[in-house]
Structures are given as C-alpha cells and as structure tokens.
Amino acid sequence: MNENLQIRTYKKTGHIEVICGSMFSGKTEELIRRIRRAEIAKQRVKVFKPKIDNRYSEFSIVSHNEQSYPSEIIENADEIPEKCFDVEVIGIDEAQFFDNNLVDIIQMLADSGKRVLVAGLDQDYRAKPFEPMPQILAIAEYITKIHAVCVVCGAPANRTQRVTENKDRVLVGGENHYEARCRLHHIIKEKENE
Ligand SMILES: [Zn+2]
Questions:
Q1: Residues with catalytic roles
Q2: How far is the CA of 151 from the centre of ligand 1 (A)?
Q3: For the segment 43-76, what is each residue's pLDDT rounded down to a tens digit?
Q4: What is the DSSP letter of 135?
Q5: CA 68–ligand 1 middle distance (angstroms)
Q6: Which domains does the chain have, with CATH numbers?
C-alpha cells in the first residue's frame, strides 16, 4: 500500500482536554471559545451539562460574563455515548457534578476517536479535590488550569471561598455564596473539616 494512503486511512485519534480552576476563573467561557472554534471548522459538536446546574438557563451553558452555547441537560454520564454517534467534539461543563462513571465514559469516547472537552471545578470550597476531576486530570492529554483574581489581594486565585454558613458540598445557583481567593486568603473553618 502507498505509504501516504496508509497514513490517511488510519483511524482518527481522539483525546481528552480539561479546563479546570476555581469559581469565577472563566472555565465555561474557555469551553465555549474552544467549542465555537471547532464549529467554525465545520466539526460536529455537542455540549452537555449535569441536571444539577440550572443557573441562568436550562438549555445552554452560560458563563459568568453571559456568553452562552446550546447544551443538553443529562442526569447521568451514561447518556452521552448514545447521543454522540456522529459527533466529533464533545463538551462537558460542570463535570464535578457527575458521578465517577464519567471517567470511564470519556475514556471510551476519546478511544473511539472523539475530542472530549471537560470543564469543572478542581477543588471544593474546603480546597479538597472535587471528584471525579482528579481522575479526569490524570487521564487527560491536555490540562489548562485557569485562575480567578483573589477578591482580597488581587493575586491569582485558585480556590473558592464560601462566604455563607452552609456545609453542603454543593450549593447550586449560589454565585453570591462564593468568592475567588488565593491560598493565603482562603479560610477553612475548623468545623468545615469535620
Ligand atoms: Zn489573596
């Protein structure tokens, strides 16, 4: 077989890209930017978000600066493969709200030749790794860690401070309950570590 032809007939390689950081770091904005560029290149794209995230819009992913992109709400990551037969680029926002089975699902999607973009919080408000993001970071080909600005000192912030009293790990629709903070100004109250 002609060598060039052989190269061209190889199956396309997929991969996993992660965009992670604290709240207010612009993760969704960056996800939307990458999805739009793929779309401009006439690639077939699809974006998903977990049911738990109902802020701003039921049918789009929306960044804090109000850029938006149409998305489909799913309850479980199991639903992604069947909706993506003819899709080349898959975006997943708020990945920290999915179960750990998301890890196997995106691995399988990337194995089958798809580009998988995953955006999510890498730490919770106590600065603990937010599952399943640690596992996804380990298997990804590309990782982009982006930063917010600390509201106290203006340094790059990679942590999320909860400024209201509540011990639930997930406090949805609550941008007012959080601030971006640097390591120095992120305060973990004793009772939050119990
Ligand atoms: Zn600071």
A1: 94
A2: 7
A3: 999 999 998 755 555 566 677 766 788 999 999 9
A4: H
A5: 29
A6: 11-146 (3.40.50.300)
